[in-house]
């Protein structure tokens, strides 16, 4: 049986095909206006990539913000459940997971068997999410990769004191006018997001290692800053975007 | 039958207006469970709970109250300012929290309502204020609250032009004790497995009891309880939950449905509505005013405290609410900026986890549809976690 996990997020649709408890295929698409159409498209791509016979059963598990829009899903699971499954598959053992995507972030603490023990997330606020970076990139007119690169190389940090993403936009502009270097401004933006993420992690607690996934985990600077702020090792998987989709597929495996 | 209670909640303004028209009686609004409803009932008055205004845009309150004040109180005040409660003959305000204690001033300012005066002094103010003690046990507390209730009773007597006798109070106490007994029976049904009563149904029954005369509610609830006995249990195997929070009214009460749609059922709660005091009846051996005072001093509210260390006493109360209810998890649905609830939350959360092995989910509410929508995914994740 081929099990396809589809994670419908705010900015992207991610899918992972799992067969015999091993990853058979994976795909990422930009989210369109119709979540169900995008999910259908990504399923077709996964089916084309995954070796399976015509009469082999295919099951779909949907997760993410738009999971309820996926009309053909056999099962729907929350993001918390799926990142726990995915992280446990990749890491093994008890750990704390931080999943930061475009529309939200959550910390999930799991036990040695992968059971969710506690979780916490952001409220109606873009701070600590990928949307905050999108706004910052628009203001600075640079791409996300460039922002990360500049922040990594920066020696200083132009702080963004406000915790509100809307007000942060003017704080960033103000930092530009005050003559801060672009690298320091980018580092300040990453620091602002990291601080918000550590708040969420502290609510559930972390011991030795943090498993960091979701689109924000692609920002290497944030990973480094999390290590510094939390004082623990931060583990970012090879494909941080796909952890929830993988976990969704594993829900039925 | 359930639709009878639902109608009173949904059309509460029309229902209270209609009651006034039919009976020629007065309706007093009240905001908090420390209000001695029995005295109002004895005077023939309809005590009607003041609630927020749901998603109605807030037009007036910003001129008077900062944005970082309790969103539930802000919504109530805005409704008052817009005249949504203009049919009330008086409003009773208690100091159930810092912001609530100021409602007396805000309501008077936002919606002035002059009443009869003698030598420039109002016979009975439109907004009546009862300052209940924050510490509810120890020397002098009973005498103090009795004095507050006596002044309240005098205002009521002047407004309704009658003397409220002990016989009238005893008769009201009898009706209220029947109400508490019936509500306890309803509450006990929610401890059964499988369930015959959903949390949302029990909540609507409870909320409606705060809007109509209790004799009518008793009559309808007694009949409804008989119907419940013969009905089939609810389908499925819902996850049994305890709900804690403040500012739960007809609007934020949708949290019950959110929980039910996610596969859960609230089987016990501490939400500062009716359940705060139907756990115990009024002592009929005491003089009626003393009995009413003692009953109110036994209300378990996050604002009040006993001589014991406060959070411990509140935790013991929570334990008593969930006893025998086989609760698997606790949902805290707390209004933003609610100091009373937020200050005790960490202690109660730890107690539930360490002493009873019950995990908690914390949700904050800004009294908007957005908060309810946001709660959906978190409650689904919580129930998934409990089902694993």
- Radius of gyration of chain A equals 19 Å
Provide mean pLDDT of chain A, rounded.
Answer: 91
Percent strand of chain B equals 5-15%
Question: In order across it, which strands form the biggest sheet of chain A?
Answer: 3-2-1-4-5
Poorly predicted sequence stretches spanning 5 or more consecutive residues of chain B: none
Range of strand content of chain A = 15-25%
Assembly state (oligomeric): heterodimer
Count of DSSP helices of chain B? 14
The separation of the N and C termini of chain A measures: 9 Å
- SSE ordering of chain B: HHEHEHEHEEEHHHHEHEHHEHEH
Q: Biggest interface: chains and residue counts?
A: A-B, 15 and 15 residues
Overall 3D form of chain B: globular
User: What is the 3D shape of chain A?
Assistant: globular
Distance between the termini of chain B: 37 Å
Q: Helix amount of chain A, in percent?
A: 40-55%
Helix content of chain B: 40-55%
Q: Determine Rg of chain B (CA atoms, Å).
A: 20 Å
Q: Care to describe what's here?
A:
The complex is a heterodimer of chains A (about 250) and B (about 400). Chain A is an alpha/beta fold and about 250 residues long. In chain A, about 40% of the residues lie in helices and about 25% in strands. In chain A, helix 2 (about 80-90) packs across helix 8 (about 245-250), helix 3 (about 130-140) packs parallel to helix 5 (about 165-175) and helix 6 (about 180-205) packs across helix 7. Chain A starts with a strand and ends with a helix. Chain B has about 400 residues and is of the alpha/beta class. Chain B is about 50% helix and about 10% strand. Chain B has helices at about 1-10, 10-25, 35-40, 70-80, 100-110, 140-160, 165-190, 200-210, 215-230, 255-260, 290-295, 310-320, 340-355, 370-385, and strands at about 25-30, 45-50, 90-95, 115-120, 120, 125-130, 240-245, 265-270, 330-335, 360-365. In chain B, the strands form three sheets. In chain B, strands 2-1-3-6 form a four-stranded parallel sheet, with helices on both faces. In chain B, strands 8-7-9-10 form a four-stranded parallel sheet, with helices on both faces. In chain B, strand 1 (about 25-30), helix 3 (about 35-40) and strand 2 (about 45-50) form a beta-alpha-beta unit. In chain B, helix 7 (about 165-190) packs parallel to helix 9 (about 215-230) and helix 12 packs across helix 13 (about 340-355). Chain B is globular and about 70 Å long. Chains A and B meet through helix 2 and strand 8 of A and helix 14 of B.
């Amino acid at each position: 049986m081929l099990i396809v996990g589809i994670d419908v997020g705010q900015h992207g649709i991610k899918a992972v095909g799992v067969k015999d408890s091993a990853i058979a295929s994976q795909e990422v698409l930009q989210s369109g206006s119709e979540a169900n159409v995008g999910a259908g498209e990504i399923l077709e791509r996964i089916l084309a990539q995954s070796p399976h016979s015509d009469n082999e059963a295919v099951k779909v598990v949907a997760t993410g913000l738009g999971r309820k829009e996926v009309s053909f899903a056999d099962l729907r699971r929350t993001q918390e459940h799926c990142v726990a499954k995915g992280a446990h598959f990749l890491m093994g053992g008890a750990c704390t997971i931080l999943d930061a995507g475009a529309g939200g972030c959550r910390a999930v603490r799991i036990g040695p068997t992968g059971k969710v023990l506690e979780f916490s997330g952001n409220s109606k606020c873009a701070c600590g999410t990928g949307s905050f970076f999108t706004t910052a990139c628009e203001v600075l007119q640079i791409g996300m990769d460039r922002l990360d690169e500049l922040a990594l190389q920066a020696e200083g940090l132009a702080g963004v004191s406000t915790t509100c993403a809307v007000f942060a936009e003017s704080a960033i502009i103000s930092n530009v006018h005050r003559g801060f270097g672009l690298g320091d401004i980018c580092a300040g933006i990453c620091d602002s997001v990291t601080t918000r993420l550590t708040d969420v992690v502290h609510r559930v607690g972390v011991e030795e290692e943090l498993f960091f996934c979701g689109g924000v985990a692609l920002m290497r600077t944030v990973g480094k800053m999390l290590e510094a702020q939390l004082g623990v090792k931060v583990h970012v998987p090879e494909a941080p975007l796909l952890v929830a989709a993988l976990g969704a597929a594993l829900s039925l495996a | 039958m359930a639709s009878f209670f639902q109608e009173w909640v949904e059309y509460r303004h029309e229902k209270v207006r209609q009651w006034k028209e039919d009976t020629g009686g007065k309706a007093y609004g009240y905001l908090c469970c420390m209000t001695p409803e029995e005295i109002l009932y004895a005077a023939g008055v309809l005590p009607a709970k003041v609630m927020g205004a749901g998603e109605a845009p807030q037009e007036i309150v910003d001129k008077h109250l900062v944005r970082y004040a309790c969103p539930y109180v802000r919504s109530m005040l805005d409704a008052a300012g817009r005249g949504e409660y203009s049919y009330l003959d008086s409003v009773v305000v208690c100091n159930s929290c810092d912001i609530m204690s100021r409602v007396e001033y805000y309501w008077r300012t936002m919606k002035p309502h002059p009443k009869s005066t003698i030598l420039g002094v109002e016979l009975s103010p439109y907004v009546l204020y009862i300052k209940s003690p924050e510490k509810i046990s120890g020397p002098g507390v009973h005498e103090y609250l009795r004095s507050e209730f006596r002044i309240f009773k005098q205002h009521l007597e002047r407004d309704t032009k009658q003397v409220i006798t002990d016989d009238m109070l005893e008769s009201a106490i009898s009706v209220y004790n029947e109400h508490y007994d019936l509500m306890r029976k309803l509450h006990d049904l929610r401890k059964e497995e499988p369930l015959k009563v959903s949390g949302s149904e029990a909540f609507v029954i409870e909320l409606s009891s705060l809007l109509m005369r209790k004799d009518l509610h008793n009559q309808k609830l007694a009949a409804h309880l008989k119907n419940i006995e013969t009905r089939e249990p609810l389908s499925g195997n819902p996850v049994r939950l305890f709900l804690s929070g403040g500012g739960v009214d007809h609007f934020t009460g949708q949290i019950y449905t959110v929980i039910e749609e996610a596969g859960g059922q609230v089987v016990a709660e501490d939400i500062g509505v009716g359940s705060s005091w139907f756990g115990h009846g009024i002592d009929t051996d005491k003089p009626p005013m003393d009995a009413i005072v003692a009953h109110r001093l036994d209300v378990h509210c996050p604002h009040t405290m006993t001589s014991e260390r406060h959070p411990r006493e509140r935790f013991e109360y929570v334990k008593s609410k969930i006893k025998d209810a086989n609760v698997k998890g606790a949902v805290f649905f707390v209004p933003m900026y609610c100091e009373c609830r937020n200050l005790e939350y960490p202690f109660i959360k730890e107690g539930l986890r360490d002493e009873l092995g019950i995990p908690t989910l914390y949700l904050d509410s800004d009294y908007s549809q957005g908060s309810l929508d946001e709660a959906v995914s978190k409650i689904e994740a919580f129930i998934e976690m409990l089902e694993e």
